[in-house]
Design goal:
Blueprint: H1 9-17, E1 43-47, E2 54-58, E3 70-73, E4 93-97, E5 106-111, E6 123-127, E7 138-142, E8 154-158, E9 167-171, E10 176-178, E11 201-209, E12 218-226, E13 232-240, E14 251-257, E15 269-272, E16 281-286, E17 294-298, E18 310-312, E19 329-336, E20 345-350, E21 363-368, E22 375-382, E23 399-406, E24 415-420, E25 434-441, E26 444-454, E27 471-472
Antiparallel strand pairs: 1-2, 1-27, 2-3, 4-5, 5-6, 6-7, 8-9, 9-10, 11-12, 12-13, 13-14, 15-16, 16-17, 17-18, 19-20, 20-21, 21-22, 23-24, 24-25, 25-26
Length: 474
């Protein structure tokens, strides 16, 4: 069905001119996802499956986000390196950070299937933020050596070496690379001093967090184990400790196996301080369990993340729903403080959940953090049959296939962005995709003022299988 539509004229104009929201503050905010420096976090949406891939940025404001304050970015956008090609997967992962040190967040986009003559596949594009973001060009990084195929499979921006300044980290299918502070260059990729990845691991992503007492950040690398033929044999989650010293020397396997609590999808791993003790906690979703999916919480501490954690399913006391096979509970997870009480909360997607007799509609479960950790008290679920959520519960929508919890209206409470890659927007459409935003309040998420949008609201033509909002930036 056609969900709520916004005027696209302003959005299209922004896309053509590259202009973002109205003039930013005199001094940039320094927020890692504020591209125009106006003090509001922005929302970046990746759609890698159509026309080589696109990233749509909606600029935050006191009233939230709207397509009227947005910009579309592709590899054909003036100043953005490269050319859009059907197989690139530009936007397969999206993150941000102040890479060039000017106080404005920069957009970091992975295209792991980009084909470069004479090199393995993959690239990472950085588009510079500023008062008028994305108008001063960018830079592209490609595979540093012959083994780095799938370069750009995952990326993060955090302080790796403990000197107080952020570093760009990029992973390929089986490689890990990092860059010194400042604008990265093609010949500036640094490999770990100690090789730590087993040959039969194929990575899907990387997540940074302050999981331990180490100076700087630690990095969770997640993906799959394979056999000698390349057949997937199970999940894999590893922890690389940051800080000064030999990068790679402190690495441990957190989980592996067919039901290890890891995840094969990069959007099913997230970090944040759920119990408010100053250390980030790790949440990993696992859809490959008999009872319809699960997620595991590992609590950070000075000594680092433990190998085991608490695992929850829809059969756990207080968790909404029923543990039915193929619900894909844990297909997406996001961590952020939606209530503003100082404890990060958790959103969990069950993107194949049946609703009101319709198959694979999708559902999102919201659970609160506390000083004791995650609590199921007062847990709620949201789907397209929930009053106030735009749209209707229809088969194959996959509501909750991607999630992000960040404060985009500046009121101190994180707002939940939700993707549904299977939403059919126009009559006869198939997997057009759409996104929603629910606001955070002191009591949790609310459907009041809920907004929704899809590719047509940003001037994109309808393309079957576009899967708009398949990826939401970390």
């Amino acid at each position: 069905m056609r969900i709520r539509t916004f005027a696209v004229v302003a959005a299209a104009a922004l896309a053509l001119t590259g202009l973002g929201a109205p003039g930013a503050a005199a001094a940039p905010s320094g927020l890692w996802d504020d591209f125009n420096g106006d003090g509001y976090r922005d929302l970046a949406i990746g759609t890698p499956k159509a026309s080589g891939g696109t990233v749509t940025v909606l600029f935050g404001s006191s009233s939230g986000v709207s397509p009227a304050r947005s910009v579309n970015i592709t590899q054909n956008t003036p100043g953005v390196p490269g050319t859009s090609e059907s197989e690139d997967q530009f936007g397969e992962n999206v993150t941000s950070g102040d890479v060039d040190g000017d106080g404005y967040a920069d957009l970091i986009v992975g295209a792991p299937s980009e084909q470069i003559t004479g090199k393995p596949s993959g690239s990472v594009t950085i588009v510079w933020g500023g008062v008028k973001p994305f108008t001063s060009g960018g830079t592209v990084l490609t595979a540093p050596n012959a083994e780095a195929f799938g370069f750009g499979t995952g990326a993060a921006f955090a302080d790796l070496d403990g000197d107080g300044t952020g570093n760009l980290v990029v992973v390929g299918a089986n490689t890990f690379w990092w860059y010194a502070e400042g604008k990265p260059t093609q010949d500036g990729a640094l490999a770990p001093e100690v090789g730590f990845l087993p040959e039969n691991v194929r990575l899907d992503g990387v997540v940074a967090g302050h999981f331990s007492g180490t100076d700087g950040s630690d990095f969770v690398l997640h993906g799959r184990r394979t056999d000698s033929t390349g057949t997937i044999t199970g999940k894999y989650v590893g922890l690389l400790r940051g800080g000064p010293g030999d990068i790679g020397s402190s690495y441990s396997v957190l989980a592996e196996g067919s039901a290890a609590g890891g995840a094969a999808w990069d959007r099913a791993v997230a970090a944040g301080d759920i119990n408010g003790d100053g250390y980030d906690d790790l949440v990993t979703g696992n859809t490959d369990v008999p009872n319809g999916g699960s997620f595991t919480v590992r609590y950070g501490k000075a000594a680092g993340l433990p190998a085991t954690g608490g695992t929850y399913t829809q059969a756990s006391p207080g968790v909404p729903g029923t543990d039915e096979s193929y619900d894909y509970f844990g297909a997406a997870v996001a961590v952020g403080d939606a209530t503003g009480d100082g404890y990060a909360d958790l959103a969990v997607g069950a993107s194949y959940e049946d609703v009101d007799g319709h198959r694979n509609v999708g559902n999102v479960v919201f659970l609160r953090g506390s000083s004791a950790g995650l609590t199921t008290s007062g847990a709620r679920s949201f789907h397209q049959a929930t009053p106030g959520v735009p749209g209707a519960a229809e088969a194959g929508d996959h509501f909750g296939s991607s999630l992000r919890l960040r404060d985009i209206n500046g009121n101190g409470r994180a707002d939940l962005a939700i993707g549904a890659f299977g939403e059919d927007v126009v009559p006869g459409g198939y997997d057009d995709g759409a996104a929603w935003v629910l606001r955070g309040t002191t009591s949790g998420l609310t459907t009041s003022y809920a907004t929704s949008f899809n590719a047509t609201d940003f001037g994109y033509p309808v393309v079957e299988g576009r899967k708009f909002a398949d990826v939401l930036a970390r």
